[in-house]
Amino acid sequence: MTSQVRGAQLARLLGQWHALPGRRRSPDYAALAGAVRGLLADGRLPLGVRLPAERELAEALKISRTTVTAAYRELRESGHLASRRGAGSWTMLPGTHRVASTGLWTPLDDRDMIDLGVAALAAPPELLPAARAAAEDLPRYLGGAGYHPTGIIELREAVAQAYTERGLPTSPDQIMVTNGTQHALDLVLRLSLAPGGNVLVEAPSYPNALAALAARRARITTHGLAVNEPGWDADLLLGSLRQARPKLAYLIPDFQNPTGHLMPASLRERVVGTAHAVGTDLVVDESFVDLPLDGTVLPPPTASFDRHSRVVTIGGMSKPFWGGLRIGWVRASAPQVQRLAAIRVGVDMASPVLDQLVAVHLLADAPAIVAARQAQLTAQRDALLAALAQRLPEWRVTVPHGGVTLWAELDGPISSALARASEEVGVRLAPGPRFGLDGTLERFLRLPFTLPAADLVEAVGRIAAVRYDLDRGGRPQWREPAVIA
């Protein structure tokens, strides 16, 4: 079912769209068409969504219907709108242009490259002592086969306790240990989504999640996020759930990747209630929940509003601890965990016991480790913000109060071109279109602050140097893609 945006909703998205006073070279209909094209390019207005009828939009904007009619006509002529008598008008891109998300790629081993494509920290110093302690614990498991499809009991108890301390009572039977958060998502999709099923995701969203959905041949409906806080438009998000009635919705409410937004508690409760009413299962990705900055108080976990087993939560240790420790988990009802374990046996059997023991020891020291991570990330974020303000003041950045990424709005639709040019000077970037489905988001760039401050400042300097030469750049050269995580 094609989702629809109402007149009042589109009017709110358009904001101050009128032609500027004193610059009457662009009539109102052209300014309106240009504003709609801008929403499409930014990914805030999804492709394939039905626009309001001309009369409805005219009333919402308090303009003449003639202006809306002319704007729609211009959008059709530019290839941004398709109309059929009796069926309405829906958004598209010229030439049915579509760029699919790609998956996880092998990184180039280049020590001179400043890699801003991966949003992950280096290992903490506590990792080696934890590994030694885990090796000492290992003998008590050597007498068995070593297969634990739901995970060893010590780790499931530790993860369950962490949820309970956050105000979400959880038993170890509700936890399944996985080989990272991406593996957790894959298993949940295998259980909950038939091939070709309808899924709602945020736009922008995590590229590897989009790749996992593409592998299931999912039919994806997007909800565009605003640049400014809190990011989610409640009416549009809940309206998309009611209209599309997806089988599943994948959301990142805690320091959303890539925008860094934090969903307020009131919206979490409404999303869970609406999902139950329309029969949608929610997959909530909590990869960054352990990394609030600036003393930010976290809202209750989304699953705390769930009374009908509609919310499955996935998380892991990649972001607060280390990506090389492939430990993630699923929190769901105990029957769901058992069904996931049955599916898992046909995929990879179980997670390595030694890695799980390492995780147990790290989680025991989590308060100290996470506090150090938060202090490190705060300093690195502020260094990156200062460098951007000095070298690229035209860019617009909303300061995130958690997570590990900035979502920068550039001074033009140049993200992919800038990424190619930056690679020439030793900086690897994750351009905006990687975080969408339809070739949009060219005015955006994700910038993680997980590297040392000196590297971040150096990277911004190199980016700024090539930014001003883009218009005079030569022919683009194709290269092997890099990891985006």
Helix-strand sequence? HHHHEEEHHEHEHEHEHEEEHHHEEHEEEH
Low-confidence stretches: 96-109
Mean pLDDT: 89
Largest sheet: spatial strand order: 4-10-9-8-7-5-6
- Estimate the global geometry from the Cα principal axes: globular
What's the helix count?
15
**How many DSSP-defined strands?**
15
In percent, how much strand structure appears in the residues?
5-15%
| Helix/strand/pairing category | alpha/beta
Distance linking N and C termini? 32 Å
Helix content: 25-40%
Biggest sheet overview:
7 strands, mixed
Rg measurement, Å: 23 Å
Summarize the structure.
With 485 residues, the protein is of the alpha/beta class.
Give the topology:
Elements: H1 7-14, H2 28-42, H3 54-61, H4 65-77, E1 81-84, E2 88-91, E3 114-115, H5 127-137, H6 153-165, E4 175-178, H7 181-192, E5 198-203, H8 207-215, E6 219-224, H9 234-244, E7 248-251, H10 265-278, E8 281-285, E9 311-316, E10 328-331, H11 334-344, H12 353-364, H13 366-391, E11 396-397, E12 405-409, H14 415-424, E13 427-428, E14 430-431, E15 444-448, H15 453-467
Parallel strand pairs: 3-13, 5-6, 5-7, 7-8, 8-9
Antiparallel strand pairs: 1-2, 4-10, 9-10, 11-12, 12-15, 14-15
Helix pairs in contact: 1-3, 2-4, 3-4, 5-12, 6-12, 7-8, 7-11, 9-10, 13-15
Essential attributes:
485 residues, four-stranded antiparallel β-sheet
